[in-house]
């Protein structure tokens, strides 16, 4: 047993599946193993600023013995991903002291963790970070909380849209999240049977997409296609509709749809679908639950061992601890245009852009 501690936990940035599973693991391990008190901080650093908390106990949310946190999406603590947090440093520091916290666990993406790292240094807090994001762009970790579920959600949507596309000889443009990173589009596109995958890291042209779609029709008799485009994909140099439909006013998915209508003298039936925040919701997958549980336990153990300023990460099938500053220095982690998944996509006949450009 270690000295009694009062540990705060918060979720910051955009929500994703698995956050509540992390909270569950932290509360369970801290309570059962160390006898500590865990306090939930409402709405990330805003909760520290306003000194608002959520009571967290081992079976506080049980309903006739059923624990909902394992499978509940979102976060019971609330989260924010806007505002100028660093403009309220003094209030946040005062709130941390007023809540009598001995340590803090922060669950966030690279942006949120960067801000929390600055606060930790200024306040000399004991702080451990847990990575989560559907973008999968936190560096030096093979897995983050939320990404696997988001991939599954997009793949499910692609499965459904494929049947509609095939029934109507239609080209479906599916825009997915990911900010400046194409991990979500690449993983889901391969697993969901896409014909074209467009990501920010690899240039592409409308001309080459048209040629690929024409080959599907002429060589293989395919009169439908699925095009997955990451929201951060760049507008191609040969765009004809940029002035009429510039990002972000109508979205890259709609722009690509408008461009592809000029592909052929034949009329091409094209639809654009933006999955949007559907990708953030839902019940966490089994893999995300495992990762979240392992990360929560590891974070508590790091606090018990006196560590601070570190992030838990998944490497080679194990949970390790890394200096948070080293992670942030390499984040966001983008898709390597020469990596194995990109080559796998091409080997499956998927158009993924032009490496030579």
UniProtKB/TrEMBL annotation:
Major location category of this protein: cytoplasm
Sequence positions that bind substrate: 133-135, 170, 177-179, 231, 271, 277-280
One Gene Ontology term of the molecular function aspect: 6-phosphofructokinase activity
Binding site for ATP: 14, 82-83, 109-112
PROSITE patterns: PHOSPHOFRUCTOKINASE (PS00433)
Phosphofructokinase domain residues: 6-303
Cofactor(s) of this protein: Mg(2+)
Catalytic activity: beta-D-fructose 6-phosphate + ATP = beta-D-fructose 1,6-bisphosphate + ADP + H(+)
Active site (record annotation): 135 (proton acceptor)
UniProt keyword list: ATP-binding, Cytoplasm, Glycolysis, Kinase, Magnesium, Metal-binding, Nucleotide-binding, Transferase
Pfam family, one: PFK
Recorded metabolic or biological pathway in which this protein acts: Carbohydrate degradation; glycolysis; D-glyceraldehyde 3-phosphate and glycerone phosphate from D-glucose: step 3/4
E.C. number: 2.7.1.11
Annotated InterPro entries: ATP_PFK, ATP_PFK_prok-type, Phosphofructokinase_CS, Phosphofructokinase_dom, Phosphofructokinase_III, PKF_sf
Site (described: Important for substrate specificity): 111
Compartments reported by the entry: Cytoplasm
Binding site for Mg(2+): 110
Function: Catalyzes the phosphorylation of D-fructose 6-phosphate to fructose 1,6-bisphosphate by ATP, the first committing step of glycolysis.
HAMAP family, per database record: Phosphofructokinase_III (MF_01976)
UniProt family annotation: Belongs to the phosphofructokinase type A (PFKA) family. Mixed-substrate PFK group III subfamily.
Quaternary structure, from the entry: Homodimer or homotetramer.
NCBIfam families linked to this entry: PRK03202.1
Name assigned to this protein: ATP-dependent 6-phosphofructokinase
UniProt organism field: Calothrix parietina FACHB-288
Lineage: Bacteria, Bacillati, Cyanobacteriota, Cyanophyceae, Nostocales
């Amino acid at each position: 047993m270690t000295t009694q501690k009062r540990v705060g936990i918060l979720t910051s940035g955009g929500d994703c599946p698995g956050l509540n599973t992390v909270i569950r693991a932290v509360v369970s391990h801290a309570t059962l193993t160390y006898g500590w008190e865990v306090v939930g901080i409402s709405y990330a650093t805003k909760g520290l600023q306003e000194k608002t908390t959520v009571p967290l106990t081992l079976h506080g949310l049980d309903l006739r013995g059923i624990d909902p946190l394992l499978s509940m999406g979102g976060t019971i603590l609330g989260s924010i991903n806007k505002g100028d947090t660093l403009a309220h440093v003094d209030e946040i520091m005062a709130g941390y002291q007023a809540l009598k916290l001995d340590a803090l666990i922060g669950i966030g993406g690279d942006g949120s963790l960067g801000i929390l790292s600055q606060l930790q240094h200024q306040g000399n807090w004991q702080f451990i970070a847990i990575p989560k994001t559907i973008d999968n762009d936190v560096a030096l970790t093979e897995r983050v909380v939320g990404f696997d579920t988001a991939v599954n959600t997009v793949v499910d949507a692609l499965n459904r849209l494929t049947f509609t596309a095939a029934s109507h000889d239609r080209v479906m443009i599916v825009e997915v999240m990911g900010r400046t990173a194409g991990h979500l589009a690449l993983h889901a596109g391969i697993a969901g049977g896409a014909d074209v995958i467009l990501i920010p890291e690899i240039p592409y042209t409308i001309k080459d997409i048209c040629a690929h779609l024409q080959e599907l029709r002429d060589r293989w008799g395919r009169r439908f296609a699925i095009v997955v485009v990451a929201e951060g994909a760049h507008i191609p140099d040969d765009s004809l509709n940029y002035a009429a439909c510039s990002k972000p006013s109508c979205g890259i998915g709609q722009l690509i749809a408008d461009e592809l209508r000029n592909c052929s003298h034949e009329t091409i039936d094209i639809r654009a679908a933006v999955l949007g925040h559907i990708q953030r919701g839902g019940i966490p997958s089994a893999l995300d639950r495992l990762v979240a549980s392992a990360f929560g336990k590891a974070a508590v153990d790091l606090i018990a061992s006196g560590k601070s300023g570190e992030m838990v990460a998944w490497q080679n099938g194990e949970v390790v601890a890394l200096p948070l500053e080293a992670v942030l220095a390499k984040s966001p982690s983008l898709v390597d245009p020469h990596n194995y998944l990109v080559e796998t996509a091409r080997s499956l006949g998927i158009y993924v852009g032009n490496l030579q450009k």
